[in-house]
Amino acid sequence: MTQNIQLAQFYGKSQNYTQIPRELYSQYGVKRGLRNEDHTGVLVGLTRIADVVGYKRDTDGNKVNSDGILYYRGININDIVNKDTYSGYLYEEACFLLLFGYLPNRAELREFCKTLSDSYQLPDDFLEMNLLRMPGKNLMNKLQHALLTLYNYDPDPDNTDVYQMLGKGLDIMAKLPSIACYAYMSKVHYYDRHSLIIHYPRKDYSTAQNILSLLRSDGVFSDAEAKLLDILLFLHADHGGGTNSTFTNVVVASTDTDIYSTMASSIGALKGPRHGGANIRASKMMHAVIDKIGLDASNEKMEETVREILNKTFPQTDGLVYGFGHAVYTLSDPRAEIMRKYCGEIAKKKGLEKQFDFYRRFENVAKKIISAEKGMDICSNVDYYSGFCYQLLGIPQDLYTPLFVVSRLVGWLAHNLENKLYDGRIMRPATKFVGSLEPYIARKDR
Question: What are the boundaries of the signal sequence (predicted)?
Answer without folding.
Answer: none
